[in-house]
Prior knowledge:
This is Diphosphomevalonate decarboxylase. By secondary structure, the chain is α+β, with helices and mostly antiparallel strands.
Amino acid sequence: xxxxxxxxxxxxxxxxxxxxxxxxxxxxxxxxxxxxxxxxxxxxxxxxxxxxxxxxxxxxxxxxxxxxxxxxxxxxxxxxxxxxxxxxxxxxxxxxxxxxxxxxxxxxxxxxxxxxxxxxxxxxxxxxxxxxxxxxxxxxxxxxxxxxxxxxxxxxxxxxxxxxxxxxxxxxxxxxxxxxxxxxxxxxxxxxxxxxxxxxxxxxxxxxxxxxxxxxxxxxxxxxxxxxxxxxxxxxxxxxxxxxxxxxxxxxxxxxxxxxxxxxxxxxxxxxxxxxxxxxxxxxxxxxxxxxxxxxxxxxxxxxxxxxxxxxxxxxxxxxxxxxxxxxxxxxxxxxxxxxxxxx
Length: 344
Ligand code: DP6
């Protein structure tokens, strides 16, 4: 007999970045972070988890390619979820014994791999929720975020929709380092994201390695960590008030602060390239022409830009980018848009 459950988890893009770990094995961060969830129909991972005595061993397929499941991160997620299932089985002997059966995880991203988007966040979030559903765990999204965090830090934020915070927490065990909802997507329905695909190549320095080197070598990093708590408060207030100008200024400053610490890392880490810088200049141009911040850029550990704007400014923002880029291929949806071929 094969037991099975399926779920999806969305991509999230941080506007206050997670960069730095105080505990690298539990992915406990040095600062809180906050993200905007992209629309599920546009950017998400779909995952089916099954378990059966017929399976030879634990396995994981991502977009049909077999993945290594022996890594500490995947193992940590499997172990935590099996422990919770075991507790259920111990408390109710009528339940089928699933905790010890081999797991088979099959994941698909609905966004083109060529979009160059980091998918570990949606990937681990979907993996954890699919197994939790398979095991019929009564775990809350908060509890699942604690487990997904161990797969990839940013994954904890993909257990919620809308505007999502991730608290640093203070417990060495990480029990209080979990995600929380700041506001649901419906709170600010006109929010839009445009993804400019500058390069679909895999990034040179992974976030995991990059942030460790930054923590070890950057002196600017300390100043960044000290500035995040007040920026988090201001960001949460801006979202609650639907104040796009404040949201945009904080988003751009935080992205710049993160990339400044990357440059201050030894050896320096360069995620932005000339096309990224042209996108920054274009946003600045759009905002000065409008006489207000109607667009905000942010960059993760790579050159691709995510531009946030409100639906009423779609022509001025997305229209301008499409004009600049000339040749736009894409796939568009309600809240996430990928624009390929940014002239790179
Ligand atoms: C720049 O979550 O990928 O996207 O915890 O080592 O898996 P690990 O790192 P990861 O780092 C994401 C870094 C970022 C900022 C963010 O998403 O907050």
